């Protein structure tokens, strides 16, 4: 079976397709509608959006117009990073459901432990309150799994200690070079599934010579190698593209990276988003 059609199983039994289609930085309207339409046409069944991307409406339209049964598509959205109160989070969830215009959501997660414009701010109490709203919509059957994004072990521990459902998912920036060992270890220990956003390091990783050399060895592209690396690590990559040929290319990842090559790739250090 093609990797694209395979699933991971979350701690509550919900099945999530192994590869998701990321929509960060895809413009609302025609660009998002076309990209998601192409992704669905080429076999993706997992679409990742967020309130902050402002493209939920176009994502929902493309999903509905595809005529693919709703139950076959896994849809994620995220609570805006500045909403850190119970009522505000409930209202924001309703807005997401209106924008997407879908009957239910598969995964709803807190986008970040702090507002994007106040990174690092202590929002522990606010995260508890927002997460309790996620628990409510989960218990009401409106969403099949809940979780967080960009949470480090301390942020996760705060949720575990003060709420009743261990997050099903933590979506983090994860790609060759970045050090996420502590967060990954914590998530594995608590059975929190890790999703990998920016698996290509928003494109910068593709220029890396070691990656290019190993990709050649497997007769794949650097992008395919980067996506496969996330899969070898047991995470769900969410590659983004607005280019049809790349949307297709990123689905052809049915190969295995040998341990010796994984070791070489793991030697690459640093955040490629800061390489120039
Ligand atoms: P574009 O959307 O113009 O096709 P990430 O998923 O890590 O955030 O990376 C997304 C970036 O990588 C986008 O700029 C996207 O460009 C580019 N990209 C996606 N897939 C490929 C590919 N197969 N080859 C080259 N660049 C790609």
What can you tell me about this protein's structure?
The chain has 276 residues and is an alpha/beta fold. It has one domain: Alpha-Beta Barrel (TIM Barrel), CATH 3.20.20. It contains ten helices and ten strands. It has an eight-stranded parallel β-sheet. A two-stranded antiparallel sheet has the order 1-2. Helix 6 links the parallel strand 8 and strand 9. Helix 1 packs parallel to helix 2, helix 3 crosses helix 4 and helix 7 crosses helix 8. The longest helix is centred in the middle third of the chain and has 16 residues. The radius of gyration is 18 Å and the shape is globular. 47% of the residues are buried. The model has no long low-confidence stretch (mean pLDDT 97). The chain binds adenosine-2'-5'-diphosphate. Adenosine-2'-5'-diphosphate binds next to helix 9.
Q: Output the structural class.
A: alpha/beta
Proportion of residues in extended strands = 15-25%
Number of helices: 10
Q: Whole-Å distance between the termini? A: 38 Å
Please give the CATH class: Alpha Beta
Write a compact overview of the structure shown.
By secondary structure, the protein is α/β, with parallel strands linked by helices. It is built from 10 helices and 10 strands.
């Amino acid at each position: 079976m093609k990797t694209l059609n395979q699933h991971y199983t979350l701690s509550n039994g919900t099945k999530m397709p192994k590869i998701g289609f990321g929509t960060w930085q895809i413009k609302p309207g025609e660009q998002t509608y076309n990209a998601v339409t192409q992704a669905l046409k080429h076999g993706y069944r997992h679409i990742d959006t967020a309130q902050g991307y402002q493209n939920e409406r176009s994502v929902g339209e493309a999903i509905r117009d595809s005529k693919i049964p709703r139950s076959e598509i896994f849809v994620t959205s995220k609570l805006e990073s500045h909403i850190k109160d119970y009522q505000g989070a409930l209202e924001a969830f309703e807005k997401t459901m209106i924008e997407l215009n879908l009957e239910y959501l598969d995964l709803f997660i807190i986008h970040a432990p702090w507002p994007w414009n106040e990174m690092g701010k202590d929002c522990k109490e606010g995260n508890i309150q927002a997460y309790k709203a996620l628990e409510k919509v989960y218990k009401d059957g409106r969403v099949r799994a809940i979780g967080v994004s960009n949470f480090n072990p301390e942020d996760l521990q705060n949720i575990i200690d003060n709420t009743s459902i261990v997050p099903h998912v933590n979506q983090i920036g994860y790609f060759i070079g970045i050090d996420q060992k502590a967060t990954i270890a914590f998530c594995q220990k608590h059975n929190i599934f890790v999703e990998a956003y920016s698996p290509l390091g928003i494109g910068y990783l593709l220029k890396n010579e070691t990656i290019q050399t190993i990709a050649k060895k497997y007769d794949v592209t650097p992008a395919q190698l980067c996506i496969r690396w996330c899969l070898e690590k047991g995470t769900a990559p969410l590659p983004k593209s607005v280019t049809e040929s790349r949307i297709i290319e990123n689905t052809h990842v049915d190969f295995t990276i040998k341990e010796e090559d994984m070791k070489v790739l793991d030697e690459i250090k640093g955040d490629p988003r800061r390489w120039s």
